[in-house]
Amino acid sequence: MTAQQQKKQNLWRTLFRRDGRKPERPEALVDERPPGGDLAEAPEIDISPNDPALAYFAGVSGVVEVEKVELDSPAIRAMKAAGVKLVVPLVSQGELIGLLNLGPRMSEQEYSADDRKLLADLAAQTAPAVRVAQLVRQQQLEAQERERIEQELRVARLIQQTLLPKSVPEPEGYQLGAYYQPAREVGGDFYDFLELDDGRLGLVVGDVTDKGVPAALVMATTRTMLRAAAQRFDSPGPVLERVNEVLHPDIPPNMFVTCLYAILDPLSGRLQYANAGHDLPYVRHENGASELRATGMPLGLMPGMGYEEKEVVLGAGDTVLFYSDGLVEAHAPDKEMFGFPRLQGFVGAHRGSGPDLMDFLLTELGRFTGEGWEQEDDITMVTLQRDRSPA
User: Fold this and answer.
1) Which pTM does this prediction carry?
2) How many C-beta neighbours within 10 Å does residue 186 have?
3) Under CATH, what is the fold of the domain 3-138?
């Protein structure tokens, strides 16, 4: 083996280490082994992303003598202080991907023209390999991140589905129905039924902003708070006020909960309701459908909020639809949104039972979105219908 070949082999060994692994950070290379010792290494030097040295090294070709570089750069000053003599930029497809820093030779001789040519050839061969290694590492990290997100979504969906009611109440003289279909990502929809001590029935439909485990945990917390407050207060407005005050200090930043809470008196058909920024329910009468309007800010957004309270008396055959925004915000292939007017029209036109209304709306939604539609958000519906011949 010639001296030139031996020198090149030593440089390759130093670059890739003796175990064949690439170092995570550029190492200083020297061409001679001290007697009885290992190859010396130059100190690692951190370079700020906005350091002008990066642009300089990306634009030069060949080996750079650090002492001859006149540049106002913290990295260059650090290299000089550390005794770095030569820098070999590793450039692949015009992108600077690394630097080889070399200290003084152990023999105290200057680097020769052959040394410089060898280093330049080495950089040309090494840069593409290092770039491939970087891309492989990046793909591995992205795959790990995707797996982490998928695992988080699985946990969130499990939390969400575990807390949803296992059955639907059957108050005498009424029909209740519920539908829940999660999207590919957990969005935080929830619904609940609260059987109160005085025989009344509480109905909750809500939606937590954001996705994943944080949304699922906020959903679980809100559900627990609603259940506790419902046992203390007789009407929906104070319940939402209490939940808002307790939730606001601890809810994560940029998150809030929209929620509709209603209380049904089965004997009279009286339905009291308050709304914390949720989509307005529709009540279907014999002559069409109307909105159940009540104003209020979402839960957890601001402290000290009050919630307007309204009521309606359900007549024989009247049906109320509670729902989440995944229904009205679904899009057709031409990007048109399903929308509130279309939903209200369908609710008013339908003459079947409450549970049949949900099937009807899902059929119309399928026609609107077309085949191959990818659900964009969770879809939740709850229907409450008073029998046509109440007891």
Assistant:
1) 0.65
2) 26
3) Beta-Lactamase (3.30.450)
